[in-house]
Amino acid sequence: MSISGLWAFLSEWLDDHPTLFLLGVLAGAIGGILLLSVLLAGCPHRYSNNFLKITDYDLNSVKWERTPKGIRVKGDWRETHLRIDQLTDELEKCFRERGLAKSIRRNEFAVFIPPDWYPSKCGTGELLVPSRVDYRLCEQKKDPEGNPIKIPVECRDATRPTKECPCPCNVRATIQPGPRYPVIVTAPNLKLYKTELARVVLYARTNTPWADKEVAPCLK
What we know:
The chain is α/β, with parallel strands linked by helices.
């Protein structure tokens, strides 16, 4: 039978059996959807990169290094790389024991220790990162002597310490959306590293892991 003859036969058959044709198309579509669902079930969603940006580092030009366990990092000390792996392992173990997450995907985030971090000269001694933070967040806290913190009006928009504003409202760590994945920006002491990593891993659950009774013990 020629191709034209075969096409004519199929056309006549489809005209005589439209219901069977539609059922066949529907079955094929359902089968395709089920197959796609099975394939996607084995592929975990990537960590969200949708975080409020309060730092503005150029992350496109960073030449990332890797910790021994594969985490992207930009920092100056080998000891810091090892410490990042250690803290990540501790958080992962705690999450697994509490049923919060089976694992932490180390290739889906990065850690950036900026060169302009600085120690606070305002009595706390904390290591801070220049950042744009709502000053009211700092005024909710107290200084080492227990007095309420007040940010002068002229310093409320300061992003780093200056002669006029030696005590701006800056953070110890945060998450900056990166080109392809979230980047934890932190001072080198990694004091809040676990907290920011918990925000990455548990994004769908909480953005304030320290306030979550199940998560908070893992941040120590």
